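Weekly structure sync, notes
Attendees: PL (lead), two postdocs, one rotation student
Agenda item 3: pending single-chain targets
PL asked that the sequence for the first pending target be pasted directly into the notes so everyone works from the same version. It is reproduced below exactly as submitted, 218 residues in total.
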Amino acid sequence: MTEKQKRLINSINGTGEFYTEQELLEILLSYTIPNNAEEVSKELIQQFGSFAEVFDRGEYASFKSNDALGGKSAMLLSLVSAIIRKYQFSKAYPKELNQITDYEKYFLTCLKHESEEVLMLACLTEQKYITYTKKISTGTSEAVQVNLYKLVKIVTQLNCSHIILAHNHPGGEAFPSNEDLWATKQIKENLSPFKIELVDHVIVGSGKVYSMKKHKNF
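Predicted structure, written out during the meeting:
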């Protein structure tokens, strides 16, 4: 590490309030690319537009495309991004989701930054507490496939009685296609024999949310 980086690390007080955004990013990168951490941290902020956007929009592929970073740095930044998002979800949203607006806000936060179409599963207890969330399928920017066998297997193994599904339409509107409506009906029918209730299917697109339950698409 450079003398400047050592000085920054040795004097950090835990909150980072006395450091600039670029300095904090430089400290992080100094563990993987000490020789040019300062230059690369400045480039990243310029590339994404702001310090916040580095972690809001950054993902492994976009970090990896920067030749100056390398694989370890790209993985480190991706991990920090994931930790920040998980922290925000945990702090901002209660585990008890018992209103449609709760589902909408939660999945909007989960999916608004995804560049590909992603299908998410949330398992809930009878009291509507989330016990498990997972991305169960990822597609292109156009479509995502639902593996009914995989879905039923995950839910039954977790002994889950209520679930919510959510997926996004990158670059599209928060409105269900005919395929979305058909798939939701099939999922609901396949879960019924196992006494598992599909509470809602939420769609995120263009910064908005569509609840199939609210619009009575079940």
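Discussion points:
- The mean pLDDT is 81.
- Residues 137 and 147 are 8 Å apart (CA to CA).
Action: rotation student to compare against the earlier draft before next sync.
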